[in-house]
Amino acid sequence: MRNLILIYAKPHIDGVSKTRLSKDLNIEDSMRLSKSLLEKNINLVKNSNFNFLLSTSKEEYVDILEKKYGVKTILQRGYDLGSKMYYSIYDGLKHYDSVTIMGADVVDFEKNMLLELESKIKSYDMVVSNTLDGGYSLISLKEAYKTLFIGKTFSHNKVFTELIDSANKINLETYILKRTMDIDDINSLASYIGGIRTKKIYEDEKLIHFSNGSKTFVFYKKESKGSYIDKICNVKYDII
């Protein structure tokens, strides 16, 4: 099979990438996180058996991403996220047997998941990975189905449930990969570091405190001496 992965990406520009995260963290750390996750996922897919491209939402982003990462980047078409995903699948299937859309901000994609995807898409109609916040980070199809995307809303905790319901209504056989975590705000970042039980307990002008019951994580909104650097996301925080 000829399989394509499209990584949905945005350039690391203030106000464009990780805008929700930058409401709580300083811009430098927010951009560093975004860049780190995209680079990680590019390298992962680059070392797989999949063909891959970056896919972005605005024409002016295409050259920025291509120059930065050396990866061919295509422009999405459509009027909202659902239609853009549909047309990404529809257009990609003109040249490939399967098309996979994956997010750039997922922190725990692994090589074994891509091997599993490569195997399962041969016999299933849809392969998907759901996320801890109720969405999904990866979807792979061999046909483009409008009912899965057109008219759908996103950024709520029923996105994955609605996808499965829509797939069941048209009798798609679905394989669900391991659940993943996308980091798009301070709460998901804290959950990645401290676990799913991590909750915000205090916030002031400079600090945000989270706790998982046994440890407290203090994130710095501004540069601060003595803070640790997270080994994956490069975001400053202290552990108490």
Walk me through what this model shows.
This is DUF2064 domain-containing protein. InterPro entries: Nucleotide-diphossugar_trans, Trfase_1_rSAM/seldom-assoc. Pfam families: DUF2064. The protein is α/β, with parallel strands linked by helices. The protein contains seven helices and twelve strands. It folds into two domains: 3-176, Spore Coat Polysaccharide Biosynthesis Protein SpsA, Chain A (Alpha-Beta Complex); 186-239, no CATH class. The strands form two sheets. The protein has a seven-stranded mixed β-sheet, sandwiched between helices. Strands 8-9-10-12-11 form a five-stranded antiparallel β-sheet. The chain is globular. The N and C termini lie far apart (50 Å).
